[in-house]
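Write out the 3D structure for:
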Amino acid sequence: MEDNQSLQEEERMAVCAIYGDEVLVLDEQHSADDQQVYTLTTNIDEDEDVSKLSSLRILVMHLFFPATYPSTDKPVFEIMSKYCGPTKVDDAMVQAIQQSLDELFQPGNVVLFDWIQAVRDYIQDNIPLAIVQDIHADDGLSPASSAPPPASSTTTPTAMTMDPSKTLPKIYSSEPLMDRKSSFVAHVAEVHSAEQVDQVMSALLSNKKIAKATHNILAYRITLGGDRVLQDSDDDGETAAGGRLLHLLQILEVENVVVVVSRWFGGILLGADRFKDINNCARKALEDCGYIKDTAAVKKGKK
């Protein structure tokens, strides 16, 4: 009888042969000798005209395969998506997906393919399609065609004196970057505290279109005086994307800024190109907002 490791590898190859190589991607950062961790992306709208949809019905989850699967134990999953199409992921959805896994699993037999099909059927039957709308239409955000806020500007104060570190900054949203039907939009704001970062993120997520993005990847850097810098990132389910975005801010030496890149998955897996698209979109938005120094001019000035 084949051992568990061989059965897991054969199952992975079979699933990738049917759905594509990147539907099931090994998460090396969280895997160990006694447990393999994968990122599973389920998209049932790959055959739809994505230009007519405001959000695709995509579910991203982490799958944990114990060393005892499939001989005795079933996989364990964690849903990373906040929304699937226009529908927020809630306890009822998680319980339904868990129930389908429990019903399908039989010790000694692999279950992933049948379970993916069950998840797809559940999404098809319970989550409606959403019609596309212009991302910038009536969303309360600055359109890309308007002048972006300069890096040195601050939020215009009201008649009442307010602490600038607690005032919601103006948010600039870029033009979409399109790559094989996936859409990337970068949002940039000047921030001077972690509280302002939270305010910016809350303001963005209050926009239904942005909240329904497949991922909202965040990174920020804030100077605290001297050589101290407050910085952090969030992958939002796109493994390692937040760290890569933060690294971009570091090498560009930008300060007092938060960048959020929203990605709407278009049904075609991009592989490592998705990280390039995220960073290129963010870099262009930072350039539009005046955060990126003119390297050539700086070098010329030093001569």
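The chain has two domains: 4-131, 164-297.
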